[in-house]
Amino acid sequence: MMKLIGNHQDNHTFRRILCLGAHSDDIEIGCGGTLLKLIDHCPEIEVDWVVFSATGHRKEEALASANSFLKPVNKKNIVIKEFRERFFPYIGIEIKEFFDQLSKNCSPDLVLTHYRNDLHQDHRLISELTWNAFRNHMILEYEIPKYDGDLGNPNCFVHLDAFTYQRKIDYLMQHFQTQFNKQWFDEETFSSILRLRGIESNAPDKYAEAFYCRKAILM
Which Gene3D superfamilies match (predicted)? Predict the structure, then answer.
């Protein structure tokens, strides 16, 4: 078990962050608190934010949410694609071509992406192509709670203070109202997983986000 963020001096290596999400709320659910904390610790950070599938109202929500989370960031690049939701494995060539171009234009210090054992087919493909495209980068895989029951045993934790934890949930509730018809999309769900990961990592303020780190080059 390791911490991604320690004291203020430890964060100088994460100057450019790439966030990848299959759908319009994935980044926020999986690593929104971590992003808020990184931005607070390093206001000059640069963020590339890519959502692969969002159209209509979902696209509007995605843009509004990204701009809220990244409000203090001066250097940000928000990209919203319109690949067909739930069909990613069947249009993989198109998405792979996008990844190839992305890797040429972006060399981040940290990549935040989906968990490789996520049972949602779109999430899983994004994770796979992340590792194909970014072979020499620090990659952390975030988790999304869902009906499939695919939560595992993460090995990397980011502790969240009460203010950061509440901002994450407030932004989710503010920006994704099209999801309110889903029984899992509520404050209780998001608080529960943050509290569970906080217990597992002995978080001083009770809450934490968790990630899967396959490889880490320390020196």
Answer: LmbE-like (3.40.50.10320)
Q: With a threshold of 0.85, does the pTM exceed it? A: yes
DSSP string, 143-179: ----TT-------EEEEE-HHHHHHHHHHHHHH-GGG
What are the pLDDT digits (tens) for 122-179?
Answer: 999 999 999 999 999 999 999 999 999 999 999 999 999 999 999 999 999 999 999 9
* Residue 92 phi, psi dihedral angles, 5° rounding: -60, -30
User: Which residue, among 118, 121, 103, 123, has the nearest Cα to 51 in the 3D structure?
Assistant: 123
Domain segments of the chain: what residues?
Answer: 16-214
Q: Does domain 16-214 have CATH number 3.40.50.10320?
A: yes
Q: How many C-beta neighbours within 10 Å does residue 197 have?
A: 22
